[in-house]
Design goal:
Helices cover 42% and strands 15% of the residues. It is α/β, with parallel strands linked by helices.
Length: 326
């Protein structure tokens, strides 16, 4: 099958590409810049981004399927409108051009954060309302884009299935991603203290497998949460220590102290031109991280399965070691 992919060089994208290559599909991918994550893989590359209509038309032309993974993740606000243009306007362009070029089905990647976090003590599933008024530009724009995508599928002759993974970990993390950098920082003892809260974590390979299943099994106009296991930052640190044998921090900094330090962290980041070790949005995400995230719908309809978090972390470190990151 001829398949088009946006975001192919990214955290989930390059793993999905590998899985589709194993299946024998003919792939055409949209790339903004060269990335070693795709080196040596049998595929056709189209230069451009999700706001480039000509590049999108070239990408989608003659393809039966399209996976839309490209997005801009931000824990530092809207970035002067770039987050909205990428996540909302880019998704609109991808879907409109997919329809124009005769694509049969689009598998669109969103995030579980698009669903309301309240009430926090109950299971979070796809019946929750979308977080259109979320304080984070990333979450708000992804909620708007998901709503647009599902409405678009109902109003047009284009099948659209949405996947909403939780926090992603695992091997093949070339950039590396923020979660990958976290694993490396723990390993290299660059994290002096722990922060409150946690995240539901899922293996990138399990997400890619669900995407392959969504090609055939997913119901058009439906969203599917792909969750794994919740782990607080403290629990995650303990697992990392057990797996790597490295010492990990044990002091849990109170949220108020971290908030007090935010102006100094931001100032240091600007002076050194480096990403801040944490932001207010990152602290909010961890503090409000849902502990009970249900993937029952994906299990039932996509055959979705997950592996133990311990295996995911161990395989991530093994990959980092084999590829010279450690």
């Amino acid at each position: 099958m001829k398949i088009a992919i946006t975001g192919a060089t990214g955290r989930i994208g390059n793993v999905l590409v590998r899985r589709l290559v194993e299946e024998g599909h003919e792939l055409r991918v949209l790339v903004r810049r060269e990335s070693r994550s795709l080196a040596g893989l049998p595929l056709q590359q189209v230069q451009g981004d999700v706001l480039d209509s000509a590049a999108l038309a070239e990408l989608a032309r003659g393809c039966e399927m399209l996976f839309h993974l490209a997005a801009l993740i931000s824990i530092q606000g809207g970035m002067n409108g770039l987050v909205r243009r990428t996540n909302m306007d880019g998704t609109r362009k991808v879907l409109e051009i997919s329809l124009q070029e005769g694509v049969r089905r689009v598998v669109y990647f969103s995030t579980f954060h698009v669903f309301s976090e309240i009430p926090a003590d109950e299971s979070l599933d796809e019946t929750r309302p979308l977080a259109f008024r979320h304080r984070m530009a990333y979450t708000q724009t992804k909620a708007e884009a998901l709503d647009f995508a599902l409405r678009f599928s109902r109003e047009n002759d284009l099948e659209i299935v949405a996947l909403c993974p939780t926090g992603v970990l695992g091997p093949f993390d070339y950039e590396p991603s923020p979660s990958g950098r976290m694993l490396l920082d723990f390993y290299n003892r660059k994290i002096p203290m722990l922060v409150p809260g946690g995240v539901d974590w899922v293996d990138v390979r399990d997400v890619a497998e669900a995407a392959v299943a969504a090609m055939q099994k997913g119901r058009s106009g439906e969203a599917y949460i792909l969750s794994g296991r919740y782990a607080s930052v403290s629990e995650l640190a303990r697992l990392i220590g057990d797996i790597t044998g490295k010492s990990v921090p044990k002091y849990l900094a109170p949220n108020w102290l971290l908030r007090v330090g935010l102006p100094f962290v931001e100032a240091y980041s600007k002076i050194t031109a480096t990403p801040p070790p944490y932001t207010g949005e990152a602290l909010d995400t961890l503090r409000n991280g849902a502990k009970f995230v249900s993937s029952e719908k994906a299990q039932r309809e996509l055959g979705y399965k997950t592996r133990p978090l311990e295996d995911t972390i161990a395989d991530a470190y093994k990959w980092f070691e084999q590829n010279g990151y450690l």
